[in-house]
Amino acid sequence: FYFYSAPENFNEEMLRGKRVIVTGASSGIGEQMAYHLARMEAHLLLTARTEAKLQKVVKRCLELGAASARYVSGSMEDTTFPEVVVKEAENTWGGLDVLILNHIGYSYFNYFNGDVGHVRKLLEVNFLSYVAMTVSALPMLKESEGSIVVVSSVAGKTAAPFSAPYSATKFALDGFFSSLRHEFIIEKVNVSITLCILGYIDTENAVRAVSHAIRDTPAPKEECALEIVKSGVLRRRELHYPSRAVGSLLLLRDIAPDFLDSLIRSSYKQ
Ligand SMILES: NC(=O)C1=CN([C@@H]2O[C@H](COP(=O)(O)OP(=O)(O)OC[C@H]3O[C@@H](n4cnc5c(N)ncnc54)[C@H](OP(=O)(O)O)[C@@H]3O)[C@@H](O)[C@H]2O)C=CC1
Ligand SMILES: CC(C)CCC[C@@H](C)[C@H]1CC[C@H]2[C@@H]3C(=O)C=C4C[C@@H](O)CC[C@]4(C)[C@H]3CC[C@]12C
């Protein structure tokens, strides 16, 4: 169906020697992706703000078998930082195979408080920096016929309460990257774009933010991270994880949107 052939089955050797950038790799799902990629013997460039955490993750990646692992620390609130990260990859590897965009800025989980400045900042960190990373990395990705992986959420396909700014940034990713995917196909640019639609995952930050308010049991971050890596390498269009829960949610969204909305509200503790 696509003009390029996408492999059917995943094999860990597909990552051996591949040059991969992972953003938001100091904790949560990004950290777990780094460990999977390390086991698969990829070259890693990790980024996030906290240098001390990145040092520990890099050390662990080297122990796990990464072909190489380094980090560059900085904040995606800084509009020059995306290019700094990509330049680091260019200088060390002279190319890039996979760009995994995963970081998010801090969101409060509550009624929208009218703080427009927060929305602006979150759009910069969660959305515009993804665009800037893609623009900088695209020449190398075209050259390698590589892959872009964009980590989003069910909140980027259907809205839930207490996450208005966050949800807006995730919807923006879908609009931008799904449009770009069309253009790549039209222009025969052989760079895949995988949008990852995740449900509630058991990362420390997410559990701290929502466990008091949400009844659901979160899915494991280790398995989630592996599924993201696999779907990117297999050049899938979208990943739905956990697959049944996200699948039913999206089906309901299209056939019974009011019912889905009431289900979502009833999953919140009163
Ligand atoms: N956990 C969940 O329930 C769900 C998560 N997702 C998505 O999965 C992805 C990962 O989420 P999760 O692992 O839970 O998140 P975490 O909060 O665990 O990790 C976020 C990462 O982003 C980094 N980060 C935070 N602020 C900035 C900044 N200003 N500039 C650069 N990096 C920054 C953090 O490191 P540092 O603080 O050192 O900068 C950290 O490495 C996100 O895209 C999220 O939207 C989607 C659905 C559900
Ligand atoms: C049918 C229902 C069970 C489905 C409802 C699922 C809703 C409630 C779940 C699914 C995705 C979840 C959000 C998410 O994507 C990531 C984060 C970032 C974290 O740092 C703070 C919490 C936050 C905003 C989650 C909040 C709760 C969300 C909206």
From TrEMBL:
<dbReference type="InterPro" id="IPR020904">
    <property type="entry name" value="Sc_DH/Rdtase_CS"/>
</dbReference>
<dbReference type="GO" id="GO:0006706">
    <property type="term" value="P:steroid catabolic process"/>
</dbReference>
<dbReference type="GO" id="GO:0005496">
    <property type="term" value="F:steroid binding"/>
</dbReference>
<dbReference type="InterPro" id="IPR051253">
    <property type="entry name" value="11-beta-HSD"/>
</dbReference>
<dbReference type="InterPro" id="IPR002347">
    <property type="entry name" value="SDR_fam"/>
</dbReference>
<keyword id="KW-0560">Oxidoreductase</keyword>
<comment type="subunit">
    <text>Homodimer.</text>
</comment>
<comment type="similarity">
    <text>Belongs to the short-chain dehydrogenases/reductases (SDR) family.</text>
</comment>
<keyword id="KW-0472">Membrane</keyword>
<dbReference type="GO" id="GO:0047022">
    <property type="term" value="F:7-beta-hydroxysteroid dehydrogenase (NADP+) activity"/>
</dbReference>
<dbReference type="GO" id="GO:0070524">
    <property type="term" value="F:11-beta-hydroxysteroid dehydrogenase (NADP+) activity"/>
</dbReference>
<keyword id="KW-0256">Endoplasmic reticulum</keyword>
<keyword id="KW-1133">Transmembrane helix</keyword>
<keyword id="KW-0732">Signal</keyword>
<protein>
    <recommendedName>
        <fullName>11-beta-hydroxysteroid dehydrogenase 1</fullName>
        <ecNumber>1.1.1.146</ecNumber>
        <ecNumber>1.1.1.201</ecNumber>
    </recommendedName>
</protein>
<dbReference type="InterPro" id="IPR036291">
    <property type="entry name" value="NAD(P)-bd_dom_sf"/>
</dbReference>
<dbReference type="GO" id="GO:0005789">
    <property type="term" value="C:endoplasmic reticulum membrane"/>
</dbReference>
<dbReference type="Pfam" id="PF00106">
    <property type="entry name" value="adh_short"/>
</dbReference>
<keyword id="KW-0812">Transmembrane</keyword>
